[in-house]
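Quick one from the shared queue. A colleague (R.T.) flagged Tyr recombinase domain-containing protein as missing a structural entry in our internal table.

Convert sequence to structure tokens.
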Amino acid sequence: QRGSWRRLQVESCALRERGLAQGTWQNKVSHLRQYIAFCVYYNIPDFPVHLGIILRFIALLGRGSHAYKSATNLISSIKWFAFLIDPPSVKIFDAVLVSASLKGLKAHLSRPVRQKLPFTIDHLCNFYNCLNLFNVKHLSCWCAMLLAFFCCFRLSNLVPISKNKFDPLKQLKRDDIKFEKDVVLVYYKYSKTNQNCSIVAWVPIGSVADDRFNLKSYLQILFSLVKAPEDALLFSFSKSDHHSRYSLVRILDSCVFEAGLLLSDFSWHSFRRGAAVFAFELGLSDSVVQLLGNWSSPAFKHYLEFAFLRKVSVARKIAKSFDNQAKQP
């Protein structure tokens, strides 16, 4: 019985570890380090938490460059650790003074949010002209750009942070791509909102008549030029080398600059936002756009906007309807 009891304890710990995805756990640990550094600097106890300490820590967050959402996530992580270390102290986070301080912090940190602009079809055309697709490194980058747009993929879906951080469970491998007649099938397995790989599916990408954007043909060319194993990173440009976050972003920045755009207005995430805006412009429903980008909440609506010409069209329809109503006796 004692052995069985101990095994249950071990299994209980393992379940708790699986309850948090690796990225979430790393964020919480990073938040904990910030709080402990604060306590060490002022030579005060970290846990169990005290009301006065939490209030001063919130005030400190108001001095920095934190966004309000980041600040509340940080406080939430401290609350999570407080529950593990000293459960009774968690009630401090529900105190009226803490609530009032957070509201004040929200007002203090409120600032206009400047999102990166979405890439459009015209931008993709410009990037195509900037790249030398006879260069295998550029060819694999172009494939990554098209996948990011057509699948609404985040950069973390495509390549690792550095070349020695490739994780086959997170980034696309060669055998995650299948060719079927006029479509390319991409094996979706991991994302920021699917860190436990609980949702897996083959995502189809249809063929485009314009050869510049025919992902299937470019991937087939890439596979024929680079004889890498099936479990290699999809965006390998030699048998032993592949793209990382840095190399893709560097090539993209070069394309953005050559296209006469401001680097501060765009990032790799602009592909994801551009895909969402393009789908929205097609008249697809919110639920379809949310499914396309695998958003777990309606937060994706912050990405969406009408193109300027569509706004002008709507404004004219409103004005015309107003005139028609005004003419009625």
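Residues 63 and 200 are 43 Å apart (CA to CA).
The first helix runs from residue 2 to 19.
Added to the table.
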